[in-house]
């Protein structure tokens, strides 16, 4: 038997049982059914059942008393009674169950069958687009992955939420904020003054960290990633498009172990540093951190890899270092004439990805000589936050500690302004100004 001859998945018994429960005990069962199935009648495969469910939900919302008689009259007044099979069919629904106790089990069956039908519809659409492509292969694959994952994430959930439900959720969040009294509500960065201004890295948001070359963008991002993974014990994914994964790991080992990376490269490891490196290696090895160092990733490749990693490990934070090294197409070619358009597309793609996955995205970006984000009009517009690293122009390069200003240029739900940090050059590590002490300054023989 071909797929075209098969009846789509559905359970007539479960659909009838859900409706029977709603007729039998409307005040309890209709809200419970809507909570599990949503108010879209399309979750029912049988059109008669869909029409009956729609009428029941509408009557409940309008506070109309519900029983077999009022349901029949409602459908009759609207000329829909015959569409649902008449009085005989409604009577059969009413007699489908003798108790409403098992509504949840019946509703789960209906929801599962509806999910299977959506999966078939999406798969059919993917196949049809593959036979008659109207978009690039990369775009088609990206779209297909998004549609498949959307079924898992949004199964039996409504696309829109009534304001009354959102109001309840907002009140819950306000109560949490009141209890927190200024405490961090997102992922902690490990930098106290920064966390005070941002309340941490919020889910579903994108923050752009920008600056001139060699101002510490990668160091800052990896300091934050390490804190989230090691201290907060949250899963972190890093896309390192410039630095190799091993080099990044070496930098993190020295940063967390407070070992001079430059001295290590030039003179080897001092005896006093071995215990520090061993302890740092233990902390890093036990952390929930994954690194991908494939250079020249397209936005489609990155989105696909991010989705898979998030699905497997529930990533809370993604770091992208850095956005100008990404491509809009998978062939690895950049179009200099349309580079701004390409970068805008990449920015939109990343912002949509982090919102879709419900995680925070820390995206690094270079800036031009006049301080603007390089190659793009949209990066700053798409971002929920924009941070710019600034150092003094006449800074002595031989200094072990460098004062750095992290200027918060944009923050959708918080203040803007500078955060003063100290960059411990030897450890490629940022600290809050108040936390730096003599122990943080390396011995002179490390140079």
Helix-strand layout with pairing:
Elements: H1 12-24, H2 26-37, H3 47-61, H4 68-77, H5 86-94, H6 103-131, H7 137-154, H8 163-180, H9 192-198, E1 206-211, H10 217-231, E2 236-240, H11 245-257, H12 261-267, H13 274-285, E3 289-292, H14 299-313, E4 317-321, H15 339-357, E5 360-366, H16 379-382, E6 385-391, E7 401-411, E8 417-424, E9 429-432
Parallel strand pairs: 1-5, 1-6, 2-3, 2-4, 4-5
Antiparallel strand pairs: 6-7, 7-8, 8-9
Helix pairs in contact: 1-2, 1-3, 1-6, 2-6, 6-7, 7-14, 10-11, 11-13, 14-15
Description of the structure:
48% of the residues lie in helices and 13% in strands. It has 447 residues and is α/β, with parallel strands linked by helices. It folds into 2 domains: 3-154, DNAb Helicase, Chain A; 187-446, P-loop containing nucleotide triphosphate hydrolases (Rossmann fold, 3-Layer(aba) Sandwich). A 9-stranded mixed sheet has the order 3-2-4-5-1-6-7-8-9, with helices on both faces. The longest helix has 29 residues, at 103-131. The protein is elongated. The protein starts with 11 loop residues before the first helix and ends in a 15-residue tail after the last strand. Mean pLDDT is 81; it is low at 443-447.
């Amino acid at each position: 038997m071909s797929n075209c001859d098969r009846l789509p998945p559905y359970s007539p018994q479960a659909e009838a049982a859900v409706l029977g429960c709603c007729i039998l005990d409307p005040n309890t069962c209709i809200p419970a059914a809507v909570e599990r199935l949503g108010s879209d009648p399309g979750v029912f495969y049988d059109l008669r059942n869909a029409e009956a469910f729609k009428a029941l939900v509408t009557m409940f919302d309008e506070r109309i008393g519900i029983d077999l008689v009022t349901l029949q009259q409602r459908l009759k007044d609207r000329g829909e009674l015959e569409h649902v099979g008449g009085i005989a069919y409604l009577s059969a629904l009413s007699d489908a169950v003798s108790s409403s106790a098992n509504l949840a089990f019946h509703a789960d069956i209906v929801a599962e069958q509806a999910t299977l039908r959506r999966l078939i519809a999406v798969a059919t659409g993917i196949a049809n687009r593959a036979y008659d492509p109207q978009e690039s292969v990369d775009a088609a694959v990206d779209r297909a992955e998004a549609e498949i994952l959307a079924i898992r994430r949004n199964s039996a959930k409504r696309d829109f939420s009534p304001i009354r439900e959102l109001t309840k959720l907002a009140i819950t969040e306000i109560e949490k904020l009141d209890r927190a009294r200024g405490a961090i509500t997102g992922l902690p960065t490990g930098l106290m003054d920064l966390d005070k201004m941002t309340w941490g890295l919020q889910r579903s948001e994108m923050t752009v960290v920008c600056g001139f070359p060699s101002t510490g963008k990668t160091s800052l991002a990896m300091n934050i990633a390490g804190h989230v993974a090691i201290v907060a014990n949250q899963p972190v994914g890093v896309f390192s498009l410039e630095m190799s994964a091993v080099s990044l790991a070496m930098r993190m080992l020295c940063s967390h172990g407070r070992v001079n990376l430059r001295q290590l490269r030039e003179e080897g490891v001092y005896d006093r540093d071995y215990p520090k490196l061993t302890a740092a290696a233990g902390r890093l090895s036990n952390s929930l951190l994954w690194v991908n160092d494939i250079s020249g990733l397209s936005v489609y490749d990155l989105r696909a890899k991010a989705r898979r990693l998030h699905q497997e490990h529930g990533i809370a934070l993604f770091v992208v270092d850095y956005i100008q090294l990404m491509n809009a197409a998978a062939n690895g070619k950049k179009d200099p004439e349309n580079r701004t358009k390409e970068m805008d597309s990449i920015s939109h793609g990343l912002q949509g990805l982090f919102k879709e996955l419900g995680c925070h995205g820390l995206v690094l970006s270079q800036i031009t000589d006049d301080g603007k984000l390089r190659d793009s009009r949209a990066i700053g517009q798409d971002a929920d936050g924009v941070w710019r690293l600034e150092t003094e122009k006449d800074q002595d390069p031989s200094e072990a500690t460098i004062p750095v200003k992290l200027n918060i240029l944009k923050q959708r739900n918080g203040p803007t302004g500078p955060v003063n940090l100290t960059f411990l050059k030897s450890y490629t590590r940022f600290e809050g100004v108040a936390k730096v002490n003599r122990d943080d300054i390396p011995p002179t023989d490390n140079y």
